[in-house]
Specification:
This protein is mainly beta. Helix content is about 10%, strand content about 45%. Strand 7 and strand 8 form a beta hairpin.
Amino acid sequence: MKKVITAIFLISIRIAAFGQSELLWDSVRIESEGFVMQYTLLKDLDNDGIRDSAYLSVEDSTIVCRLSTQNFTKMASKPIEILNFQSGVGDINNGFQFFNHWMRAGCENQFRYNPQTKKMQLIGMNRYEFGNAMNDGSGESSVNLLTGNYTGDWNYYDSEKDTLIKIPTIYANLNFGVINLEDFSQDTYFDYSEKCAALYNSFRQLDSEQAPAFFRDENIQPFDMEHLDTINLQFVPISEDTFLKFKEKQSHQPGSKYNFGPPANPSFSLATQNEYYKFIGDSFGEEYRYVGYVPEISSYIISACKWVCTGCLLDNETDEKMQLPDSFDSGVLGLEISASKKQMLMFSSYYGDDYAKVSSHRAEIIFMQIGEGKGFHKLVKPEICIITAFSIEDIIWIDNNSIALKVYDKYEEVWNDSHTHTYHEPVYQYLKAEIKTDK
């Protein structure tokens, strides 16, 4: 019969400080199976100005949090059986994390205080593996539990080619529901690990097939831009400081912002509920960009560029596709969901004041209501604001009835000695407009 020897040394040593938080090494448990160090994080977790605590209990193998707003009552996870010397809690922005590292794999789990439920909620997980001796199955992934957005970067070993091959970055939307600290156990991250492994295996097979399922957009019908209802907005100048304050406020609101910049990853993979896709750029200039997942309409946004750029919505449940509306070669530049999650806007723009060469207008903003239904069929009542006075750099929702804009007149074109030209940063202006799209 195996004898378990346990010793607990009661020590308190300050090992790190992070602004208003401290990480203490309190004790260590030595067992025949290994070592577990106990760390205590002292930090204001519930935003009342009083420091709280989070630690890994060596007595019952649980994650414990004590909040001042809960009179420091013990809030604990379910027991976690597989712990080792590299297990504990750590500091993160606006919360704490529980980490558990093994020899060739590990995971981290992030918790943040939810003022509505007054609980510590699991908001994110990430994991890594080194794989076998040939690094087969090595890589890392993360998932945001608030949005379900999953990103995975994994590799597999090709024995025939004797080389390690990277699978194009995998994007998916995974639903774990709401998990509070009291619900958390090792089964939580094992469930995540299983979902992650299923995606890895599916895309590994897809990547090695001779005729993989590439995404094709030839059959996507263009959006009807000619029969949109028009909306007139009155733009009022505001200061840059006011715009930046609106932008800071927006970052704390429930709405979402999506940037259609240049393709950052011309090749990637994407999993809907029914299908697996590969988006592969080619040597002829075709590039793709994964823009993001919009939970309000259960759709992924993909931007494709080859001479011109077009945006597309891909429904996560039905795999239907819809082209986003725009009138310019640069395609949609930005997409915004309002804080109420009942309105969406997109904007497109021509970069200069010589827009008449290519279009009857210089910029456009398209508003849509998010109504009932499924997927992107929730988008109803499209309206367009046509602009000739300026180009648009950025738009943000101030509230459900107003927007703020960062605009410019033109880029300054400069010719160099080598007879090439560049564009200097334009002079920006800032505007505000009232809009009532609810009908």
